[in-house]
Amino acid sequence: MRSARSRASVLVSALLLATAFPWAPAHAGGATVKTSATASAAPTLAGRLAAVRTARSINYYPSNAAWSAMWTGFDATRIDADLKKAAALGADNVRVIVFPQAFGYPQPQRVYADRLQKFVGLADKHGMTVKLTLFDWWDGYSDAARSIAWAKAVIAPYASDPRVIAVELKNEFQPGDAAAVAWVRRLIPAVRAAAPTMPLTLSVDGATGSPGMAKIKKALAGTPLDYYDFHFYGASERALAEIRKAQAAVAPTPIVIGETGLSTAEDSEGEQAAFLARVFRAAREAQVGSVSPWTLTDFAAGAIPKNSSVSTKPAQYRFGLHRADGTPKLAATVVRDAWTRGATPNNVLDLSFEAATGNSPWRANLTRAGAATIVSGTARTGKQAVRFSGTGRTDAGLPSLLTSPITPVQAGHKWRAEAFARGASATGTTEITLSWFGADGEWIGQHSSNRLPAGTTSWTKLVVNATAPAGAAGVQLHLKSGDNKGTVWFDDVAVS
Fold first, then answer.
1. Which UniProt keyword terms apply here (predicted)?
2. Which residues, other chains included, contact 12 with Cβ-Cβ below 8 Å and sequence gap of 6+?
C-alpha cells in the first residue's frame, strides 16, 4: 500500500489537483510567495505521521461561534487572538472541523475555501500546523461520488502543504452503520490517490470506544487507515486501561487521543484539571505522544447553532481550558505544564485543601449521612482543613471526601496514602481507605488505614499501605468519618 506513495506520485497528484480545482490558491503574475509551506521540502507520509503522533494539539472553535458558525461568521481577528493564546500554552497544532453544509456541497464555495486558507495561515503564523476533520454532521452515505469530489476539492490546496499534517475523513464514525462503512471504503482510496502523503484517520466517540475501533480496523482491512483517533471522556482514574484497550484494538497501527476533557458545567474546575492531568500521565505511560484537549475555550450562550443537537446540552458549553470571557481555568495550567515541561504534578489534587473555591478536585460521597466542609482556623498546616461533624452512615457505607491520584493504577504496584486527622468528642469510625476498581468500573475491594481513636485527640497520622490487586485499573482515596456524634478534621494528605 505505502510503496505506491512515491515522490513522483506526490508531484503528479499536486499538478493534477491544481488543474482540477480552479479555486486552489494562486498568486498574481505567476509569482510564488515564499511561505513556510513553499519554503519547505514536500512533506512525506512518514514525516507527517510522525508529526501527528507527537502533536501538542488543541481542538478549536471560537467562544462565540462554534461548529459551523465558525465558518459562516468567520472572524479572523478573534481567531488570530485565540491561536496566539493556544500557542502560549505550548500548542503546536490545531484541529479544525469543516462542514459540507457550510462550505457548499459538492463544490466548496470560494469564500469558504478562502476562509480555510486564512485559518491555516493564521495557525502557521503562531507556529501551529493543522489537522483537518471532514464530514461532521453528515449522513449522506449514498452519495459517495459527490462526497469524494468534495473531499478532494477541500484537500487539494494542502496535498503537499506541510502546514496541514493529517485529514480525519469523518468525525466520530459509527462502524455499525453498514452504509457508512461502504461509503468510507470508497472515500479512503480516492482521497489517498489524490493526496498520497496525507495521513488519513477516523475517530470514534466515547461510547463506541475500543470495540468500535476494532470493528473499523476489521471493516477497513482492504483500505487501512494510517492511525486511529481515540476520543476519551471516560473515568480518568482508569484512563491507562482504556488507552491500552484502544491500542490493542488496532495494533500495530498507532493511536492519538484526539479529544478529551471534562465539562465544568457538571464538575468543578479543579476536577477538570485533575481529569486532564490523569489523562496526560496515562498517555505518557502508554507511550501515546499526542493528547488533544477539547476545547480551547468555553462557548457563550447562543454560540452553538440551534440545528445542532448539542446546542441544548449545558455541558457542551463548558469544556474549555478558558472561560468564555477568555480567562484561564486551572486546566490551562495543567495543559501548559504537560506540553512545555512534560510534567503533571500532584499539586493539582489540592492535598492540603488550600485551593480557591472551585479549584479542588475533591468530591463528596454519600452526603445523605453527612458532608465534609472546608473550614479555616483549625488546619494542621496552612489555613484550611476538612471537617466532618455529626455524621451517620448509609447502606453503602460511611460518608467521605474522595479523589483519585494522578498516577495511573497498575496491578501489582505498591501504593501508600496518608492523612492527618484529629477529633473533638469523636465517635464512630474515622479512617482513610484506598478503594480499587476494575477496567469496567467494577468495585474490587479496599484497603483501610489505622483508625483515629475516639474522643478528643491531637493530630494523628493515618496510613494505608497496599498493593494494587489483580485486575485493578483505578483507585479512589477516601477520607471517611461516620457514626460520628462529634467532630473530626483532616489535613495534609499524601498519596503515591
1. Hydrolase, Signal
2. none
Q: For the chain, give every residue range classified as CATH 3.20.20.80.
A: 2-344
Measure the CA–CA gap between 100 and 103, rounded to whole angstroms.
5
Kindly provide the b/e burial profile for residues 443-461, where b requires at least 16 CB atoms within 10 angstroms of the residue's own CB.
ebebbbbeebeeeeeebee
Q: What is the CATH number of domain 2-344?
A: 3.20.20.80
Centre a 10 Å sphere on the Cβ of residue 77 and count the other Cβ atoms it contains. 8
Q: Indicate the range of 28-32, 102-106, 250-254, 443-447 predicted with least confidence.
A: 28-32
Strands 474-482 and 400-403: antiparallel
pLDDT (mean) for 178-197: 97
Instruction: Tell me the C-alpha distance between 486 and 288, whole Å.
Output: 49
Residue 436, strand partner residues = 445, 475
Residues 6+ apart with CB under 8 A from 327: none
Strands 203-204 and 228-232: parallel
Q: Where are the beta strands (DSSP E) in 134-253?
A: 164-168, 200-201, 203-204, 228-232
Answer yes or no: is pLDDT of 106 > 90. Answer: yes
Cell (9 digits) for 425: 468528642
Cell output for 418: 496518608
- For the chain, the average pLDDT equals 91
> In whole angstroms, what is the distance from residue 425 CA to residue 481 CA?
13
DSSP letter assigned to residue 84: H
pTM score above 0.85: yes
Residue listed under C-alpha cell 482492504: 222
Judge whether residue 193 has pLDDT over 50.
yes
CATH of domain 349-495: 2.60.120.260
